[in-house]
Amino acid sequence: MTLLYEGKAKRLYDTDEPNIVRMEFKDEATAFNAEKKAVFADKGRLNKAVTLALYKMLEKEGVRTHFYADQDDVNMLVRRVEIVQIELVVRNYVAGSLQKRTGLPEGHKLRQPIVETYYKDDALGDPIINDDHIRELELATPDELAHMREAGLEVNRIMTGFFEKAGMKLVDFKLEYGRLLPDKTEVVLADEISPDTCRLWDLETGEKMDKDRFRQDLGQVMEKYAEVLTRVENAIGS
Ligand code: UDP
After folding, report:
1. What is this structure's pTM?
2. Is residue 213 over pLDDT 90?
3. Which end is more exposed in the chain, N or C (fewer Cβ atoms within 10 Å of the end residue's Cβ)?
């Protein structure tokens, strides 16, 4: 089947069905705008399984996603979307670039969630942008942007409670949205939600269980991803 798109962590392929594409999760990992690269055996399987479990859980809670059907270890079928070129980051605690931008200590609990928007543009290094920049660049309509923020906060409410049940603190995460084809009138959650795109800390010990283990050379990267999957699956079963 034709390769439609290859990104840093995923490939998209055509299928026999119009407007359904196959999303393959790769073992490659990148950080710091692809300056740091590595391959982790089994990462594709683990991230696909976590994304699948979270998409199913979110759909049950009434969140619209582009998920269509599970396929195999590293592939799922998703409805075709036109990706909105904005990364929506939702934060509950200070970490990463928010720590750098504010000087607040890592782990500081935010009084209320912070939502940020970044321009999905590798050449520019995904800069943070505001609503005025989004309007000027015509990245989303005001209605689409309002929906993305609201849906992002709803996903945060649902996932914060879910991860707590799974013994983890949801520090922050990144979401992407897409306009469903062929109409492009409905904007739904797209891409992945995994330890690559969320910061997750053990509730008891504060241990990092996400991509920061790779970014910060903490070791045991896939061991912790596998632990996240086990806990997510147990929390779903309970
Ligand atoms: N994130 C992501 N993809 C990106 C940038 C950030 O998935 O291209 C996630 C990241 O894993 C974290 C959250 O978004 O959970 C906030 O990231 P931050 O802005 O702190 O940037 P970083 O420290 O990762 O550079």
Report:
1. 0.97
2. yes
3. C
